[in-house]
Amino acid sequence: MKKLVLAAAFIVTGSFAMAQQVNPQDKKINREEMHKKMEQKQQERMAEMQKELNLNESQVAKIKDLQEKRKADMKAEFEKNRGERQAKMEQMKAKRQQMDNEMKNILSPDQYDKWQASRKAKMEERKAIMKEKGLKGERRMMKKTQSGTSI
């Protein structure tokens, strides 16, 4: 009985979470805000480094060039591995579908439906935990920047 109530609670929680979906325009705005914040943090770190290490303008320019080169290299590496990641995701999706089909053959229809509901509830729970961890991390970053220290 407890499991049934718990599963129902997860399903209800999951339906509320799915109702709060973000539209693509909001994602674009959030991405732009994130890029602005990252640029600002980079400028702040550079100013702090310049002050702490007593860098001259030539050194600052060279460090900025080095950082831009590193950023471009990382982006290129990310793009290079994109196809490989996509293939792995497709492979995992196929394996998940295969397992799902095999479970459908093993379980009765009622058992299969319960298994699916349980799986979905666990997935929603993991998403909620990850979202909460992300918010906690964001709060920690805000506290550190407000206290005057940088990350």
A few lines on this structure:
This protein is mainly alpha-helical. It contains four helices and no strands.
Structure description:
The structure is a single chain. Helix content is 91%, strand content 0%. It is elongated, with a radius of gyration of 23 Å. The chain is built from four helices and no strands. The longest helix is centred in the middle third of the chain and has 50 residues, at 57-106. The model has no long low-confidence stretch (mean pLDDT 81). It has 151 residues and is mainly α.
What tags apply to this protein structure?
151 residues, mainly alpha, 91% helix, 0% strand
Largest sheet: none
Outline the low-pLDDT stretches: none
Number of helices: 4
Helicity range: over 70%
**Structural class of the secondary structure composition?**
mainly alpha
Average pLDDT taken over every residue: 81
Order of helices and strands: HHHH
The count of DSSP E runs of length 2 or more, i.e. the number of strands, is 0
**What is the CA-atom radius of gyration, in angstroms?**
23 Å
Determine the N-to-C terminus distance: 48 Å
Report the β-strand fraction as a percent range: under 5%
